[in-house]
From TrEMBL, chain A:
The lineage of its organism: Bacteria, Bacillati, Actinomycetota, Actinomycetes, Micromonosporales. It comes from Micromonospora andamanensis. Keywords: Metal-binding, Signal. The keyword Transport does not apply. This is Molybdate-binding protein. Belongs to the bacterial solute-binding protein ModA family. PROSITE patterns: PROKAR_LIPOPROTEIN.
TrEMBL record, chain B:
It is a multi-pass membrane protein. InterPro entries: MetI-like, MetI-like_sf, ModB_ABC, NifC_ABC_porter. The chain crosses the membrane at residues 28-50, 70-96, 108-129, 149-174, 195-219, 254-273. Belongs to the binding-protein-dependent transport system permease family. CysTW subfamily. It is found in: Cell membrane. Keywords: Cell membrane, Membrane, Molybdenum, Transmembrane, Transmembrane helix, Transport. Residues 1-22 are annotated as: Disordered. It comes from the Bacteria. This is Molybdenum transport system permease. It comes from Micromonospora andamanensis.
Length: 260, 281
């Protein structure tokens, strides 16, 4: 028993030492050396979950010895966490407003850059039973519509698009985020919702995404920045470069995002 | 002798328990964790008060949305509590007084909403009472009634989450109550219904009141099941907790003000109810 415990203890010590070594290595910036190593922590908007996970795998494959971990959540929650000192290396926000919160608090390293845009579509149940072709079709008494609340980015964009189309729509609900709005369509509780094209595409089996012209004037910019107190700044910069490179961009556009 | 007389003839209430006697100093081993526990519960409230924007408080409080959400919250929580009383007190009686097979399982099932994350509860409600749900689909096709996105939906979601609090409190009171009064009523010819209304209910009234207060407080603070099942629309389904959540997205101070309003109203109502119903002999 004691022997087993001591084995366990020495294993833990080794793990801890290796861990320290990685940390030390990563806190030692070596510009000029092409490879980056250690851990890099990316705080990213929930709508980036699928594509950033994929990009992270590619980035790890290109940089042996590097581990990418993600924290996906609503941009405003992530911005609050970063401003409260969460150990993030990179912040990718679904809206400029939440990025501004971080930059204004002095927690950005350099200026953020917009790396993609997202556009709204009308999500309707698979097969489009109500024959929705545009925003005007939503403004009928028997068509129930879910929008995002205006406090979250997809709701602000929806408001802009509806105003541009001159459609005075009364939704049945103002959902807390885009995934919640989408799930109301998937559950059949509403007949349509305004969601991002990427979300509609990710739920391809249950919903159809109907494009509409007014969404062009209501795109959402996604900015990305290296966090000022990034524990692993070289790897953070390399990750941002990778996201903006053509392999990174092609993963994003395949998911339905648009290049900036 | 009528059952009512049986109640009237019951012996005087047992004397209240004697006041705790002071037998030496309070042990530090109890005082220290007790103080830490109190601080743990109270400090977050202090945090809210410290960050409250007192200077802009009056103008923020008079914004029209605040009162609407508050009124809706109080109304929905009260209706949900009434619904819980109508359904929950008989359920508690059944669990406490009737020996039926599977009683332990039923008791466990009653507490499911306590352990279920409220968001999951909301999804489950949608699957049953939603437009495509087992019950909801029938309501929609037969009566043209839809529950999601309505104030009724808010009441249902709150009742679902809050009812276990009432059932557990009332069942506890029933188990603690002296069954001899009920037996005496039965001996004197009262049926189970008469015994329930004339003996049992008055006997456990304090327990029911305590359960109703807990139930109301839980319903008032309900967030996850409400926003999932009833959605969020000002004036119809947007209760205070939902308004707080959305305010947090953009405006921390507004969220704090709304939280403070909810907190004040609930504390005032709970304290006044407690004085009236629970502490009086």
């Amino acid at each position: 028993m004691t022997a087993r415990l001591s084995v366990l203890f020495s294993v833990m010590t080794i793990v801890a030492l290796v861990g320290c070594g990685g940390g030390q290595q990563s806190s030692d910036p070596r510009p000029g050396a092409g490879a980056v190593a250690g851990d890099v922590t990316v705080f990213a908007a929930a709508s980036l979950t699928e594509s950033f996970t994929r990009i992270g795998e590619d980035f790890e494959a290109a940089n042996p010895g590097l581990r990418v971990s993600f924290s996906f959540a609503g941009s405003s929650a992530l911005a609050t966490q970063i401003n409260q000192g969460a150990p993030a290396d990179v912040f990718a926000s679904a809206s400029p407003a939440n990025m501004t919160t971080v930059i204004d608090a002095g927690n950005g390293d350099g200026n953020p850059s917009v790396f993609i845009r997202n556009q709204l579509v009308i999500a309707v149940p698979d097969g489009n039973p109500d024959g929705v072709n545009g925003l005007a079709d939503l403004n009928q008494p028997d068509v129930k519509v879910a929008l995002c609340a205006e406090q979250v980015p997809c709701g602000a964009a929806a408001r802009k698009a509806l105003d541009a189309a001159g459609v005075a729509l009364t939704p049945v609900t103002l959902e807390r985020d885009v995934k919640a709005a989408l799930s109301k369509v998937r559950l059949g509780e509403v007949d349509a919702a305004l969601v991002y094209r990427t979300d509609a595409r990710a739920a391809d089996d249950d919903v159809d995404g109907i494009e509409f012209p007014e969404s062009a004037g209501a795109t959402n910019d996604y900015p990305i920045v290296v966090v000022k107190n990034a524990p692993n700044r070289p790897a953070a910069r390399a990750f941002v470069d990778h996201v903006r490179s053509s392999p990174g961009q092609s993963v994003l556009t395949a998911a339905g995002f648009q290049a900036p | 002798m009528s059952p009512r007389d049986a109640v009237a003839a019951r012996p005087d209430r047992p004397a209240p328990p004697p006041r705790p006697r002071r037998t030496g100093p309070v042990p530090v081993a109890l005082l220290l964790p007790a103080t830490l526990g109190l601080l743990f519960l109270v400090l977050p409230l202090a945090g809210l008060l410290i960050r409250t924007p007192w200077s802009t408080l009056p103008q923020r409080l008079t914004e029209p949305g605040v009162l609407t959400a508050l009124r809706l919250s109080v109304q929905a929580a009260t209706l949900a509590t009434l619904l819980c009383l109508v359904l929950g007190v008989p359920l508690a009686w059944l669990l406490a007084r009737v020996d039926f097979p599977g009683r332990r399982l039923v008791r466990a099932l009653v507490t499911v909403p306590l352990v279920l994350p409220p968001v999951v509860g909301g999804v489950a409600l949608l699957l049953v009472f939603g437009r495509r749900g087992i019950v909801g689909g029938w309501l929609d096709s037969t009566f043209g009634l839809t529950l999601p996105f309505t104030t009724t939906g808010v009441v249902l979601a709150e009742a679902f989450v809050a009812m276990p609090f009432l059932v557990i409190a009332v069942e506890g009171a029933l188990r603690g109550a002296d069954v001899r009064y009920e037996e005496a009523a039965a001996t004197l010819g009262a049926g189970r219904w008469t015994t329930f209304t004339h003996v049992t209910l008055p006997l456990v009234a304090p327990g029911i009141a305590a359960g109703a207060v807990l139930c109301w407080a839980r319903a008032l603070g309900e967030f996850g099941a409400t926003i999932t099942f009833a959605g969020n629309f000002p004036g119809r389904t947007q209760t205070m907790p939902l308004a707080v959540y959305l305010a947090l997205e953009t405006d921390l101070e507004a969220a704090i003000v709304l939280s403070l309003v909810l907190l004040t109203v609930s504390v005032v109502i709970l304290v006044s109810l407690r004085d009236r119903w629970l502490s009086s002999p």
